[in-house]
Amino acid sequence: MSEPEGNSKQSEAGAGLMQYSAEGMMPFGPVHPSLKEPEYFKLYLEGEKIVQVVPRIGYVHRGIERAAQERTWVKNIYLFERICGICSFHHSLSYTEGVEALAPFEIPRRAQYLRELVAEFERIHSHLLWLGLLGHWAGFDTLFMWIWKDREHILDLEEAISGNRVNKSYTTLGGVRNDLPDNLAEKSRTEVNYLEKRAEYYKSLVQSEETLSVRTKGRGRISQETARKLCPVGPLLRCTGIARDIRDEDPYAAYGDVPPQVQTENDGDIASLMTLRLNEVTDSCRMVKETLEKMPSGPFRVNFPRSVPAGESTFHVEAPRGELFYFVKSAGGSVPERVKVRTSTMANILTATEMLKGHTLADVPVVLTGMDPCFGCMDRVAVVDVDKSREWTIGGEELRRYGIEYYRRK
Amino acid sequence: MSSEELTTLATRLGGTLTPGPRSTVLAVPPDRVIDACTAVSSMPGWYHLSTITGVDLGENIALLYHFWQGRRFVQVRTQVPKSAPRLKSISGVMAAGTLYEAEIQDLLGVAFEGNPFLGKKLFLPDTYPPDAPPPLRKDSDPHKIRKMMELE
Fold first, then answer.
1. Assigned domain for B27 exists
2. Which pTM value belongs to this model?
3. What is the ipTM of this complex?
4. Which residue range(s) make up the domain with B24?
5. Which of A173, A185, A393, B20 has the smallest count of CB within 10 Å of its CB?
C-alpha cells in the first residue's frame, strides 16, 4: 500500500469528517455480488490514539440492484433476502410490502400478524447474537456461549414456522407462504417466557460484570448532536436518547395493533447499547405473546398478479439494526424497473467512524462490534501509525487478544 | 410544514410539488437541490435523510433525496443529463449524504462537486476500467465489463 494523501501528523489530526485516501486495492469487480455492508476501515493513529478513520466499502459488492432488474417480482424476494444472513426476513418484508403498495390488493390481517411474529423472532435472535459477539470480543467467552445457546431456542421456532433458520423465505407477495403450524403458538409462548427470564438475567449481568463494564462504559460514545448530523438508525440512534422507531412512527405489518414500547438510553456508549438491546429483547418477547393472542383467523395469502402496475413506492422497516429502506419502481411489467436498497449498516458507517475517534486500538473490536455491523471485516483492518509513518495489517483474532491483554495490564 | 408551505417552497425554488399517499415529491432544478434539501431538513420535527436513489431514465439520470418523518416521506427530486452528469454535493450541509452520493457516483457515474469522494471509488474496485460505463446504467453490459476486467 502506498502512503495516504497528506499523511502528516497535523493534517490527519485536524482532518475533517471524511478525509479519504485513495489507496488500497479491492479484490472484487463491479458486478460482483453486493452486500453493501462489508467494509474496510483505515485507522490513523497517534501512538495508541485513533485520530482519523476512513471507511472503504464494496469488497463483496454483488450488483444485486442490477440483478433485480432482470428477475421477476417473485424471484427477487429470494434474491433480496440473501443480502443479509441475519436480518434476511426484514429484507424480504420491506421488499414485499414496498411492491404490494403498488398494487390495489388488501393483504390478509392474519398474514400481517404472522409477518410481525417472524420479524420479532428475528429481532430477538439478532440482538442475542450481537451481545454474544460483544462478549467474545471483550474476552468474556462464557457469555458468548450462553447467549448463543439461548439463541438456538428462537432459531428452532423460526425453523418450525418457515422450514429454515436463516433464509426463511416466509413472506411472499400477497401474504405469507404458510400458516402457523399446529402447536407452534404454545411452543412459542414457552420459549419466549424462557428467553424473557434469560434477558433479565443478562441485563443484571452486563450491568454488574466488571470485564464488560471496563470495556464498554464510556466507549464508542456518540452525542445527540452527532446523531442528528450523521443520521444513524436503530439502536445507535436510540442509545442517544432519541425515541425513533419505525414500528412506532410508521407502522407496517400488524405493528399498528401490536405496537412496540420504544426503548431509549441516554449515555450513547456501548454499555447503554447493551442495556437497550436487552430491553428490546424483553419487549419483543412481549410482542410475540401479544401477536399470538390477538392473531385473527382467516386466509394467510391472496393471489398476487405477476405484473405490478406502474408506479413508485418508498418503503422502510425497522430491522434489528435500524431503518432498512427500499425504493421500488415499476414500469408495469413482470420485472422491476429499479429497486434501491439502503441497508442499516450503510447508514451507520459514518457514525461508527466517529465512535472510534479518540479511543485506543484496543477498543476497536468492541466499538466496531457495538454498532452491530453486518459483516465479518475484522480481518481487514489496516493500521497506520502517523508518528512512525508506517503501516501494517492486523488480523481479527490478533486484535481481539491485543484488546484483552491491553485491559488486563491496565 | 404544511402542503401549502411546501407548494410555496416549490414555487420559490422554481420547482413543482406532487403530493402522493406516502411520498410527496418536490421536483427542483439541479442547482436548487441544496436549498431544497436544507429547507426540507429544517422543517418542524426532524426529517431524517434516509438515502439518495439514482435512477437511469435513458437520456437523464434522476436523483431522489428521501427525507422521512412520521408517516410521510418528502422526496426532493432532480434530473441531470447523462451527457453532463454533474451537480453540487449536499455533503457540506448534510454530512449524512456523503456516502449515498459516493455510491451514485460509482454506480451511475454522477459527479457530486464538493463530495470528499469526488473522483475516488467507494464501492467499485480501484481496478475498474476507466473507459467502462458505470455498472448500474442501463446501457452497460455486465459481460463486457467482466471481459474488460479479464474476469471472463
1. yes
2. 0.88
3. 0.95
4. 3-123
5. A393
